[in-house]
Amino acid sequence: MKTIFSLSAFVLVAPLTAFADSPQIVGDAPAAPIEASAPVEAAPVKFVISADAIYTAAGEMIEGGTVVISGTTIAAVTPGGESGEDGLHVAAITPGFVELSPRINLADYSVEESGEIMPTMRATSSMDLYDKRWERLLNSGTTTVLISPTAEDVVGGLTSVLKTGGDPTVEARVVLADATLAGSFGSHASRGNHAVFGRPTDHFSRRPTTRMGTEWSQRKAFYDTLAAIGNVDRQFAGWDIMESVLNGERPYIVQASATQDIRTAIYLKEEFGIPNMVVDAAAEAWREPGLLVRSGMAVILPPFDAQGRTAIDNGFLAWNSAKLLDDLEVPFALSSHGSASLNGRLSMQAGYAIRGGLSFEDALAAVTITPARLAGVDSRVGSIEVGKDADLVLWSGEPFAATSRIVGVVLNGELVTK
Amino acid sequence: MKFLPNRTHATTLLPARTMTLLRNWTLVPGAIAASVLFGNLPSASAAVGDSIVIEAGRIITQAGEDIVDGVIVITDGRITAIGAAADVEKPWDAPVMGGPEFTVFPGFIEAHTNNGMDRPNENLDVTPFLNVRDSIDPVNFFFEDCKRWGITTLNVQQGNNTVVAGNGRVVKPVGVTVEEMTIRPDFGFKISISPKSGKSRATQRQTLNRAFGDLRSDLESQVESAKLDEELAAREALGQGREREAEEGEGRAMTGSGWKVEGLERIKRSEIDEKVLPLLEMVEGRHRTFLYCGAPMDVQTAIDFATENGLLAKATLVLDASCWKAADAIKASGLSVVLDSNMVHIEVDPITEEETETFVPSVFAEKGIPFALSSANSSTNSLWFQAALCVGYGMERTEALAAVTTAPANILGLGDTVGSLEVGKAGNLLLLSGDPLDMTSWVEFTIIDGVKIYDRSKDVRNRHLLYGVEPRGTLAIESTASETPSKIEVDGEVTEEAKGEPVEEVAEEPIEEVVEETTKKD
Amino acid sequence: MRNTILSLAGALACLAPFSAAQSEGAPFAIKAEHILVDGGEVLLDGIVIVEGGKISKVGLAADLAGGLPKGMPILDHDGWLSAGLVAANGTMGLGPAADDSTSAFTENLLVAESYDADHSSVKEARDAGVTSFGLTTGTGNVAGGLGSAVKTVGGKIINLRTHLSLCIAPPAIQSRRYPTSYSGALSALDERFAAAEGVYGAVLKGDLDVTIAVGERHEIDRAIGFSKRTGLKSILRGANRAGEFAERLSEAGMSVVMTAPVLGGVKWHTDSIQSLASAGVPFAFGLADSNAGASSLRLGASLAVRAGLDRASAWRAITSTAASLAGAGDSVGRVAVGYDADLALWSGDPLSPATRLESVYIDGVLITEGK
What we know:
The complex is a heterotrimer of chains A (about 425), B (about 525) and C (about 375). With about 425 residues, chain A is α/β, with parallel strands linked by helices. Chain A is built from eleven helices and 17 strands. Chain A has two domains: about 5-95 and about 410-415, no CATH class; about 100-380, Metal-dependent hydrolases (TIM Barrel). Chain B is built from 16 helices and 22 strands. Chain C is an alpha/beta fold and about 375 residues long. Chain C folds into two domains: about 5-85 and about 335-370, Roll (Urease, subunit C, domain 1), CATH 2.30.40; about 85-325, TIM Barrel. Chain C has helices at about 10-15, 60-65, 120-125, 180-195, 200-205, 215-230, 245-250, 265-280, 295-305, 310-315, 320-325, and strands spanning about 5, 30-40, 40-50, 55-60, 75-85, 85-90, 130-135, 145-150, 155-165, 210-215, 235, 255-260, 285, 345, 355-360, 365-370. In chain C, strands 1, 2, 3, 4, 5, 14, 15 and 16 form an eight-stranded mixed sheet that branches. The longest helix of chain C has 14 residues, at about 180-195. Chain C is globular. The N and C termini of chain C lie close together (about 10 Å). The interface of A and C includes residues 118 and 204 of A.
């Protein structure tokens, strides 16, 4: 490769705006480079990756450009430029993927089933960072995940956003602790509960045993929360967490797959004016476009299935669901439910969404910046921008194509390659 | 869908064309004739003398260079001409399909599947007297999916949970009876080297050995008693002073196997127990066998077993992903392989717990072992997807495409008939909306033996999967087409012969419906 | 049996059979070719004087022999003498009902009240040279009760309340009883330690040790996080992979009781032991979570040495460190003045698998002989 000047030296010395009028910008690339929100420290450049195409998820694609990494963050994203002898060159770069429904949990041990309204439980207390699935997810391009309790409780507890790699401790991996509250509609929350005949046999002798019971429990929890605000006598464990959902400080992510459950979730949102609510595993969201738009609810789609049927409540996920939500301007994220296999991984979900009619850019957003935004971590991850975490996926060809392969993943500025 | 007759000829010879149409209408009842002509019936048997012209912006022949703006002429189910539009003479009266927006590709070939059967596995261990003919379900969804995803030739064999399974069959996904579907009847046997459930590897091997050992000893004792009978007859003839009748035996000597039964020709075929006769035919090299190996350790056993019993020349290994480890032995044996739909083998180091991933098809490609891919499911992760993943992992595109067309055709002994688009080969092809390996490509039409057997614009189920529209009533793929007459233009005149609607309209409709319905609710 | 009775006064020796020396409290001496004092320290031709069931003197025979009171019986052992082995934990003598299953929190139960010193499992331990151990609950409860330090004979209790036994792992976390999840178990414990009442307060004040039973790595990680948060210097129990957390354990001042390595066992087990040793994390072997019998302690220590662990650490893991993690470090586990005369006489080096146990003394009383 031709090197006009040493790029690393340039970044250290020259102001970034020197790139502003760079004639090397191709196509509709932004006129000015993406600037860091904070002044770029003169941190040593760790390495430089050049690519034929950089899909930043924050504006137009940069055809032929470089990403400069210093420390754990992105120091520069520039059209043109070369990676130098020590750097890497790949066909394409996308941001590391953000998965809001990775389902990487310890099954029954990850949800406190002795009660239904458990807002104080933390998903981070019930996970296994030594599980091989983390590494597989990372190698499949997913660099950030939201971990939640499973949907066996009406209100399951607090979720957290973690990186998929690094030292196996919550402290080392956490991006945002207690990011959202997790809840559940549909059949999962009532599963295993039973009516009391005579003496209760165990703690599963309780509500809810049906969908409507689940809905009742949801509403009661929020009524209790309203009652608890300003009334010490009515306060219960975690009422303040529930309040943070009511006042919009924290998103409420609820699992609802079937049409009636999604509807119920929307009605709950509207009844209590929950400002920030996301419906997870929303296979049949496409059936309620009008309600979705009216409610302002965001959606996490479950993985696409060959026969359209999803595992949760047998929801039917039409292949153009992503395209439809996009047309409706409903914010949505794709998810893989933690699959790292070649035909199930998150990048392939983006491919399937494209197959269902979604545009490339929108598919990219649905696995990067949109989920990052929904989880409240878009200031750190989800796009290739100066100052953000250097989480990148390196491709052998056009991203999301079945004929392309992920050849490397960068996490916190470290190259992870299988 | 485009369905225009060849304009140049039609302009000058319109009466003659009408004659042809009339002929068709007279020969068969009208509705069926229209259906046959426009490929809406499941039957793949085109009327004799029928031709169809396929035009495409690009033809991927799998037999040399791609053809840009090409034309294929199929007559009586076979390709009679293929080439650039300028070089191919189109029969003046043949209907024309396709157009510049299409990419034509040979129909995909599934080298080995257990799908489409009522029950793929048998309880008994050794069942060569069974036949998948009796378990193939022609109206199984699987075959419908095959049309949808462009699989035009399939080798249906019994499942891997067996010792010696029943006789397999090569079929096309067309027809309502097994006979209609059949391309090669009584083709191949599955033999499992890996233990059937409930067996250990030792018992499996013993059961296999016993099956062939019993065959051998039975034949030997039959030959022995035949000899005695002959001697008796000879003595009788001598005693009676007459010439003995000519030898009636029609058996033949075994050549490929490690063991022989001397004097087998003395026994009439009809005298051999029909339950073991297929085994003898395998030993004689008359049948292809598909040897299933569930672990690398089974591969050498399979090769040894095939060598001992004369199966080697016509054997194919059906492999689990882990069997890449035995690739050298496979290479040395010269056998072809069908790979598992799971193409990534993950191995965990027992000490370090590190995982090592191996992309299996690449191993076989690098060693130069003939291999065919198989579908991960009968839907999106079908053969095109498997081939695309191979390209992603660095395989040459031509090799990846061969692994789902010509390579399986050769494994099935159908290399001269299917797998590529050449003159003389079957008119099995797909009209795709784009490159076969592209995420956004769809099979728009599937043609088998020159007959259109699938049209995506009429595919209610595909519409359901793609747009979430529920199939209404009992609409089936075929019936929609024949119920909805549409108009086509022949030289400015509008005729009503062709059926079908433009693709775009059908595709767009459902979305609007959904939106409208919901708006009403609100 | 190669032990011979010697006496400085030959006549007395003939008149007073050795058994007389065993009457409780009567002083006697044992002279041995090797005395394994503690860790790697070995006295060649040493002598131990036992008075009132305690060790009153330890030294070289050359220094001490002259000063022995007249008539004191001396046992001359031409093998090795060491402290009786100590299992850092064990459920011997509890029978099958080591846990009360009605609730996950039975923190006030005193496990010593279930201790049956005549149980066959206790005898088995004694026969393997184990003279005391940390009696603890099973792992069926999140807070299982209070453990004790006990001897393997006569129901003798060294220390009635040594530790609170916790478990943050599946045996204690069950689907049909509160808590059903890790998060539930942790928040329940957080709540109780925040309230700091009863035994939880005692633990926080340092009056009681606390053990946390864990298995998987994520459980170890969770237990470390919990200990840091509550400021407890917990003892991890059953944490065979703890070595991978050696630095964090060291920072948190925690220690580890694991099962002893077994023949043909996994490599990470012995690696883990060595990591703990090099990080200076106190560790010892226990029997509570092991399927192998009491003989696994000594064999495990020798396997650890075989895998590269230094002899001193290996020996302490089944004696002095084990004793201190069991809450009895001041009285057992060493051959030292003032310590209980819990002694084991071996045919050779006890860290050699070929070595036989010959006699065991507990509180100066011969318990087993002639093995």
